Every structure is written in structure tokens, then in C-alpha cells.
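Before surveying the methods themselves, it helps to consider a single example record, giving the amino acid sequence and C-alpha cells:
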Amino acid sequence: MQPLTSQIALVTGASRGVGKGIALALATAGATVYITGRTVKDGKLDENLSGTIYETVDAINQLGGRGIALPCDHRNDDEVKAAVQRILDEQGRMDILVNNVWGGYENMVDESGEFTWFNKFWAQPISRWDAMFQAGVRAHFVTSALVARAMVAQRSGLIVNISYWAGQKYQNNVIYGVAKTADDRMAKDMAHELREYNVAAVSLYPGLVRTERVLRDAEYFDMSNAESPEFTGRAILALATDPNVMEKSGKVLVAADLGLEYGFTDVDGRQPIPLTLETS
């Protein structure tokens, strides 16, 4: 029997990138994985990058897993409520929530052609704050609040916020740092309130991931230690199957550290080197 057989997972923002990799890893391990996202037609959103929620489901099915696509704009509370309610109506439970959806990387170049990511905070487009918080931090909170009700009732579950080192150190963008810090603190405080119900909440840092966007711009990155999108999914699989996962609840975790601790490797057999506060 696969380790996640009978488990129900929701991965938000899984049309491509890290979200897609997580969905593939969890489905391969036997979970029924629901996938949300806005992209239902290839190249229509997100800088014409390839990938849709339906293509993610097709990839899952080709591996013998079970994936279900739910078109959902996580900036719209009604759509989120409908998506979560459908899962609960169909399955009666929720075991894993991965808050991966993120709007912070859209419109990196403004209408004049300027790359604005590295601008000082007073020269940043205000729309970037709205994108990171509406389609990121706020979306993670709303989905967690809806899912937590079912997890509390069943007295089990795992909530994962996908975050990054900008939550602990300055990484060239004030808005980005504030958003990631908020995600980390959200997981910590949710864990505090969920502990008595045996529900874990963590913040998880991938390394540099070979997403569609990163591969497109690979000439600007040192790819020697890059991780596949599925590697983050393997980290979540390890947490979901750890009988002592509550010991990690409330913590910030690094995917590559978990690889060393639990003994899993990337899809190519490599063992990524964990980033640290100094090397990130």
C-alpha cells in the first residue's frame, strides 16, 4: 500500500512550478490530490508560461495517481469556499493542505519595460503589495481557515505554507520580505491554536527550484544546487507520514534539511545542499 492511500490533499496554485511538483509527489504516494489555480488555458496567464491545472491532472493520471482540477482564483473568497466545500462534500475529510498559490512574481517588468523588483520600496509599484498579499498571504489564511475546520473536527491534518528565506533576511525587496515573514508567523501561530487538535502547521522553504520561470531565465542563476519541483513534494510527503510530525509543528523547515533527516533524494538521485541564513 502506498503511504498516502486514503489521504486527501489540496495543493493551491498547482498549474506549474513548485505546486505542480508537490501535487505529483503526493499523488504518486497514493493521495487523492485536488489542484486549484486560475490557469485553465495554456499561456493565458502568468507571463505566457506553460502549464494549466488540467495539465497537472493529466501528468498525475499518467503516473497512475488521482488528481482533480478545481478552477479557482484565490483572491475570490466565494470561489475558495466553493472549492473547499466540494472537496469536503466528495471526500468527507481533508488531510493535507499546501498553501502554494502566490501572485508575487507577476508583472516584474512595468509598462515602460523597467524591471522593478530591485527598486527601493518607495519606487515599487503598489500593485506588488496587493499581489503578494491578496494572492499570497491572505489566500493562505483564508484557505487555511476553511480547511482547519475539517481538520479540527477529525483531529488530524497538516497545513504547509510555502515560504522562503526572505522571511528571515533582507532579499532585495521589502514587500517580499514582509509577505514571507507574515507566512512564517501565520504558520507558527496557527500551530499554537491547532496543537490541542493534533493538527500540524509548518512553514517550508524550498531551495532554488527548476520551475518553468527559473529554467527560462537559467542563465542568470547558479543551477548547480537547484531542486526539482517534486523535491518539495517529497519533503511534504515525509512530514505527512511522520508519526511525530507534531514535534515540528510551528517551525520553519528547509526542504533540503528534511531530505537529509528523512533520507529522501531528488528525482535524479541527487541530495541538494540545504541553504542557510548565510548562503540563501
The helical segments are 17-28, 53-62, 77-91, 126-154, 174-194, 212-216, 229-240, 255-262.
